[in-house]
Structures are given as structure tokens and as C-alpha cells.
Amino acid sequence: MATLLQALQEAREDEQAGILAERAVRHAPLQDPYAVGRLLRALQEAGEKGQVAALVARDPATQVSLNEPAAVGFLLSVLWRAGEKGQVAALVARNPAAHAPLNT
Asked: What are the pLDDT digits (tens) for 64-79?
């Protein structure tokens, strides 16, 4: 979804981008930390502060999978840069380091 959102914004299709952003925030699955991070970053880049807040209100930090350390690290970075310290704390409280497979 993040790729389509960015493409619509680049094409100056603001109405379509807004529709997609709203749908994505409400219905996007929150299990994949990389997908959540990409969506959050795309919303930020689009200046969609309300949609960023709505996505964060769904509490993705408590729902993402911890199985892929790189994806979790990416999401942590995006959340930190967005100033979402509560989400960072919630994600870290889930102890992602203890869940990270050591063979990757």
C-alpha cells in the first residue's frame, strides 16, 4: 500500500491518495513490522498527520511480529523519527531482542 500511496502522491492524485491513506490506516494488517513502517513513513512524507495519528492509535507496536529483526529495527527507527516514543516503548517492552532468531 505504501508504494501505491507514494505513486499517487507523485502523480499529484491527491484525492486518490487520501482515499487510499484512509483505507490503509483503518484496515491494513499490523502484523508485518516492515509494512507498518513503510506505511507510517509514507503517511508522514505526505503530511498526513491525522492518518499517522489514526494508525498509531491502532497500537501497531503491540501487534507486529517479532520474528524478523531487520523489520522490527526498521519499524523502531520509523517510530522514533516520528516522535512516537510511546510506541517505541511498547515495542521494546515486548523484548524483541529475545525473540530475534540468531541464525539470520
From this structure: 999 999 999 999 999 9
| C-alpha span between 94 and 37 (Å, rounded) | 17
Instruction: Find, among 48, 81, 42, 78, the residue nearest to 61 by Cα.
Output: 78
Q: Specify whether the CB–CB gap between 25 and 57 falls below 8 A.
A: no
Angle between helices 33-45 and 14-27 (to 10 degrees): 150
Alpha-carbon span 14 to 90, nearest angstrom: 33
Sign of the dihedral defined by the CA atoms of residues 93, 88, 31, 58, in that order: positive
Report the predicted TM-score, pTM, of the whole model to 2 decimal places. 0.87
Give dist(CA 57, CA 65) in Å, integer: 18
